[in-house]
Structures are given as structure tokens and as C-alpha cells.
Amino acid sequence: HFSGLFxxxxxxxxxxxxxxxxxRFTGTIPAISGLPELEALTAHDxxxxxxxxxxFPQGLRVLLLQRNMLSGRLPSLKNMGQMEAxxxxxxxxxxxxxxxxxxxxxxxxxxxNRISCPVEQYDSDWEAAGCTDLMIPGNLLTAPMPTWASxxxxxxxxxxETAWVEWRWMVLEAATGAVLxxxxxxxxxxxxxxxxxxxxxxxxxASLSMILAPEPDDEDHHIEHLQRYAxxxxxxxxxxxxxxxxxxxxxxxNYYDCGKHWLHTTxxxxxxxxxxxxxxxxxxxxxxxxxxxxxxxxRVEGQRRAPPADFELSTHTWPQVAAISVAWIVVVSLLxxxxxxxxxxxxIPPDENSLGLTALELRAFEAGTGALLFLV
Length: 376
Hints:
4-stranded parallel sheet; alpha/beta; 6-stranded parallel sheet
């Protein structure tokens, strides 16, 4: 195994094949655009860092740079009409995949990087050329996928074109569930509330007041008081945290150029921005201090609203504890079944699976999971 800095190849203008793979070369890859005869560069399984050169020789056919420590952006291959194989997987390369004109590539392995956005291709010869080996797991490309890609129907590997396309069914399910839940609460209060006015409109207003109004301030509702006080502290903390962290997350969302748009407002895409990362760390320390203060205030409130002297917690015998544990396992298992169906519906390729499930059936599984959980 050779070691040391990656060799400078510019002194070899007639070089055709640079086979430098499976060594211990370090440093960056120097410019290779000045090697007009170069057809293959294999430098995989080294310790290379930095970016891939932005320009390649026009006659380059094979570029293998996988399993290094490369970063930066993936160069455009638009003008690389002779390119046949590209392998840059298991690095930290970001940007978008721009394929060459002509559709002559047969192997494209870019998995386990930070590549995003839609795949750019400029002609329709790819499918005719028989190219199907586009390996993308570990990235987050944006739909639609190329029609010739064998993994185009594995939907969880790609991000939707817009947030609405991704969330429209879930928003509809959540809105339907919220309306049904609120209707159940209103109906329950309307039917079982005591001492309410007899008229329909007044009865409904009083039912809503019973749902939304705080409990009376007496010793019989000390647990409810603590719960409400804790909810207020949680709401106050949210009002303080969200306006501070969301702009920081958005400014530091550099992990993907595109990706899922709504995740740019979370910590999921925070990368390559030292100022934003330090701001998050400082904010986290401040929020921990806020949590400590909130817990101390909750403790004081609990002591102030101590339960009455005759209040006792219920106890259970060992057989009852065993029965409750078994029932808990059964309930959790039943609640996990819809999640299994949901995962299966997102990872099984439609119309091309051994179960014979069509795209419509898989979509029904995916869309029906929320409704099934709501009914359970």
C-alpha cells in the first residue's frame, strides 16, 4: 500500500489509466482537466479529502472515488458524453446529480452522500441505452425520478416536489380526526353535563364552556390543577424556544441543497455552519436552565396545592400488575400493526413485488393507517 499525498498527474499528459485505488493516499485530488488522454481514474478506498475537481477530461470514461472522505459539491457531468461509470458512494458529497448528454452511462453509484434535488438529464436515450443501475440510498433526491431508474418506485428514497404533495393526505386525515374528536367531546358534554340550561343553543354554549373553562379552584381538583400548570409552563417554553431556534435551524440547514422543505426548520439538516451550531448549543443551555426553573416552580405549586390528608394512591397486587403488563403488551402490539402496514406500503415497490400488490393497494394501506389508528 502506498501512502503520502495524492500524486500530481499533470506532468503525465499522455496518461490514459490512473489506477491508484486501495492505498493510503491523503490530501486532495489535483486538477485533471489537463490530461486529455485520461480514460479511467480509480482512487477509491483511500483517505482523500476535499472536493472532486470541477472539470474532467472530455474522454474520461470511468471515475471511481468511493469510500474516501470527500466533501464539497458533485461536479456536473453534462458535457461528459463519454462517461460510462461513476462511483462516488460513501463520501460526504452534496449538490445535485447532473447526467451527461448522450445517455451512455451504465453504472451510477452515488449512495451514502448528501446529494439532493431532482436528477437532471437532457435527452431520452438513457432508457434505450439500458442504464438502470442508479443507486441512490443514503441521499434524498427530489421526485420525479428518471423513468429508467430501477429504484424509481421506492418512494421513501425521494422527497416530494412540494410540502403539500407530501402532507396533503396526512393533513386531511388529521383534520378529519380533529373534527370527529371535537364532535365526540361536544356530544359527550351535551348529553351528560349537569345543571345546564334546557334550550339547545344555551346548552351547547354551556357544554363548550365546560370543555374549555378551567376547573374550579378547590381541593378536589389538585391533580388537574398541576396538569394545567405544567401545560402552561410547557406552552410558555414553546413560545420562547420556537422563535429562537427556527431561524437558527433555517440559516444552518446546509446538509441538503433541497431535501424536504419542512425539515429545513428543524435540526435535521443543520450542518456546515459553525455559527448556527454554536447558537443552537447556547440556546440549548438556556432552555435547560428554563426547564430547571419550570420544574422548581412546578414543585412549589405542587406543595401549595397539596392533596387532602385522606387522599391515598391506589395500590395493586402482583397478579394485577402481571395482568396489566400482559394487557399493555397486547395493546402495544395491536397498535404497532398499522405502523407495520405503513412501513410496508412505503418500501415495497408497486406492481413489481412478490406479493402482487398494486400501487393503488399500497396507497390505500398508507392512507388508511391514520384512520385505523384513530379508530383504535
